[in-house]
């Protein structure tokens, strides 16, 4: 059986082509002259042709077959170098291409803070943010389409692990000029005659309906919206109030924060935590970084002064 070509032997042969000398090739490759000579011998033996011939004036010169062989060897080694670099980069791919899922209704509220933290650790990363429903995020994690996602911990699948980012007190969003905006706490019944802005997305209607039922309060539903941003906009225009169970993270104040007061509710109604989900028992660089980030934040309820 023919001896397989060796990358080192090909490099030795190309060094002879480059230098025109066995001794200079051995110095270039930091090996003995006999190692270079053996590489040529084994290759010529396998091919059945001569690669070099020696001349007193020009040293080691390529034969016609040697020209063809070294051209192929150069192409191969260039491809091999590219392969080695790409293979070495495999463990670092997560540093460049990071895909994170987030609950669609809250992505703009929390992701700027999360991404700012990750970018400080992995400065050259490219991020893809997948905004989906809680059910779709859970399915994507369990089918390994996503490594991690941010959502609430209600109805958590047993195959998933939850890492709390924060739990925000239930609170009313009020225009800063509202008579109750400066209060430390507020009873839900105190708002029952005000126009209510109903959040209607991914389970929000059911959740907040349960809150009003818990307190035996019938809200005066005046607006129904499907984004938090629209609710914030209506509140800042003094068109009504809404109830929220999330607020911005400590370093992510939105353009509405000075236009809306957040006043905690007096309530024993269940309030889920918000955080990261990933497959139980799985770890890795990204999961460890996201766990550290989850531990570093605190929610902030903002109550701007009334005008």
Shape call? rod-shaped
Q: In percent, how helical is the residue content?
A: 25-40%
Largest sheet: 5 strands, mixed
Q: Please report which band the strand proportion falls in: under 5%, 5-15%, 15-25%, 25-35%, 35-45% or over 45%.
A: 15-25%
Mean pLDDT: 87
Order of helices and strands: HHHEEHHEHEHEEEEHEHEEEH
Number of strands: 12
Q: How large is the count of helical segments?
A: 10
The radius of gyration computed from the alpha-carbon positions, rounded to a whole number of angstroms, is 33 Å
How would you classify the helix and strand content by structural class? Answer: alpha/beta
Poorly predicted sequence stretches spanning 5 or more consecutive residues = 302-307
Separation of termini? 90 Å
Spatially, the strands of the biggest sheet line up as: 4-3-5-12-6
Structure description:
- The chain has 307 residues and is of the alpha/beta class.
- It contains 10 helices and 12 strands.
- The chain has helices at residues 7-19, 22-29, 33-47, 64-89, 93-96, 107-121, 134-142, 204-214, 228-236, 285-296, and strands spanning 52-55, 59-62, 97-103, 126-132, 149-152, 160-166, 171-174, 195-199, 220-225, 242-244, 261-264, 274-279.
- Strands 4-3-5-12-6 form a 5-stranded mixed beta sheet, sandwiched between helices.
- A hairpin with a 3-residue loop joins β1 (52-55) and β2.
- α1 packs across α2 (22-29), α1 (7-19) crosses α4 (64-89) and α6 (107-121) packs across α10.
- It starts with 6 loop residues before the first helix and ends in an 11-residue tail after the last helix.
